[in-house]
Design brief:
This protein is mainly α and 121 residues long. It has helices at residues 2-24, 41-76, 81-115. Helices cover 78% and strands 0% of the residues.
Length: 121
């Protein structure tokens, strides 16, 4: 258990530092802004999709990390019921978080389709 605590004290901060760079690596390169004009509905749709993809990707990664940490706690708990209960809570919260992110994705996709006027086609 002490080894797990030592490893997690190092691995979690390193993971939190590396995670944004890993998720931003898949984004396209930004283009030069066009001055003087307003946003079209296509640009708003693209912006909503880009932000939604980023948020959903990061949130799913965090939910999976919580599920894995909970599983490790549950496996390493042995007869320690407090650690077992904490592991179960981590797994439950990770699953709930993933479900919430899925629902947010559905909502954002619906808004995106309404903005692009492709919802009823």
């Amino acid at each position: 258990m002490e080894t797990f605590k030592k490893i997690s004290k190092i691995a979690i901060p390193v993971g939190l530092v590396i995670l944004p760079f890993l998720s931003l690596a898949a984004l396209p390169l930004p283009t030069n802004p066009v001055g003087g004009g307003g946003l079209s509905l296509t640009e708003v749709d693209t912006l909503i999709n880009t932000v939604a993809r980023f948020i959903i990707t990061v949130s799913i990664v965090i939910a999976v990390i919580f599920i894995v940490i909970g599983a490790i706690m549950l496996i390493s708990a042995g007869s320690n019921t407090a650690l077992s209960d904490r592991g179960k809570a981590y797994i439950k919260n990770g699953i709930i978080g993933a479900a919430v992110v899925f629902l947010i994705g559905v909502i954002l996709q619906t808004i995106s389709n309404l903005v692009a006027r492709t919802f009823f086609n």
